[in-house]
Amino acid sequence: MTAPVLGIADLLGRCGVIPVVAIGRAEDAPRLGEALVAAGLPCAEITLRTTAGLEAIELMRDTQPELLVGAGTVLTPEQAARAIDSGAQFIVTPGFQAGVVATSLARSVPVFPGVVTPTEVIMALDAGLSELKFFPAESAGGMAQLRALAGPFPGVRFIPTGGISMANLAAYLALPTVLAVGGSWMVRPDLLAAGDWAAVGALAADAVAAVSALRGKPA
Fold this sequence. Notes:
This protein is α/β, with parallel strands linked by helices and 219 residues long. The protein has helices at 8-15, 29-38, 53-63, 77-85, 98-106, 118-126, 142-150, 169-173, 189-194, 197-215, and strands at 17-21, 43-47, 68-72, 91-92, 111-112, 114-115, 131-134, 157-160, 181-183.
C-alpha cells in the first residue's frame, strides 16, 4: 500500500516541536539547518524579527532540501509575499491578520494565524483554517485555555507557542488538540551567536526524544 502524502500541518505534527528561530546572521542558516536535520528535527520557523530572516529562509531551502522551512512573525501581506518568494513553505502570524491569511491562501501556502479567544478561532474557521497557532501560550492561559477551547472547537488543532520549554513540553503534547508546539529553547540567540551547533543539536535531539517517548516514532 502506498503511504499517504502528508500535508504541511501533518508533517509539523510528526515533528512535534517547531524550532522558532530569530537568526542574526543569514550565513548561519545552513549550519543551523544541518544541526536540526542531524538531530532528527527537520523543521524550522524562521521569524522575520530580524533583517536576516528572509535570506536565511532562502539559504535553508537551498542547502537543506529535507528541512521544512516556514516564516514566522509575518505581520503584513507584503511580508507574506516576500517570505513565500524566498521559499517559505508555511506562514505563521502572531495574531489573526486577514491580509496575511488571504495572501498565503492565494499562493496555496499553509498559514497558521495566532489565536487566543473563541472569536479569533471563529475568524480562522470562517477563513477555512483549522490548524492554528495559540499565542502567547503560557501568558494567555496555557493548557487550561486550550482545554476550554477544545469544547466548542473539537476539530481545531493548535500549535501553542510562547513560554514552552522542556519542562512543560510533554504536558502540552499530551493534549489531544495540540498538533505541535513552537519553542526557541534549542535555538536560543546566544547559541546561534556563538555558533554552538553542537549545543543546538543536543537540545533538539532531547526534544525529539521527548516527542518520541510520548507519541512514539512516526510510521
